[in-house]
Amino acid sequence: MEHYKLLYFIHAALAVLVSLGLIAHMVILWKAWRRADAGVLQQKLKRTRQISLPLLAVLALLLPLSGWWLVHLAGWPLGQLWLLASSVLFLLLVPLGLLLGGRLRAWQALGEQPAPPRLPRFALAYAGLILLVLVAIMGLMGAKPV
Length: 146
Ligand code: HEM
Description:
Helix content: over 70%
Radius of gyration: 17 Å
Transmembrane segments: 6-30, 51-70, 82-101, 122-143
Organism: Pseudomonas saudiphocaensis
Protein name: Integral membrane protein
Pfam families: DUF2269
Number of strands: 0
Bound molecules: protoporphyrin IX containing FE
Keywords: Membrane, Transmembrane, Transmembrane helix
């Protein structure tokens, strides 16, 4: 049982870290865009794409791994609604993550040129959808509808 508790803590901490990391980067990039300092914005975009996004993706991928391990340890029946629904929702994060990555790449490729407002707005919308899906999964994990 101790093993379960530790894994449970790691799983929940990962969920919080991924969500907070995403929010932090949304705020950082949005503020940098508003400041209209092309140099600062490019630097933030570069760091986000090269370091933060890959790191967040790895942390996010650890969620289903630790989650299914918890299921295995606790012996939950696999057909429960909360497990199935959260797995489907998690799969949704893959295309959304790729779309977000694509927008950020296009934004960075503009270099010092000002971005058309559509570009950061789409990036924000994808990030917002990812956050929404994460919150929905956390809701399912907490409520556990069978
Ligand atoms: C998709 C595969 C996943 C599976 C199979 C899974 C499975 C589980 C299991 C078995 C628990 C422990 C329940 C308990 O002992 O009460 C749990 C808790 C939790 N999971 Fe997941 N999980 C998955 C993905 C996720 C994701 C993607 C997130 C984040 C968005 C997440 C967030 C949480 C949270 C916050 C808890 C603690 C909930 C609470 O007890 O209030 N899980 N999960």
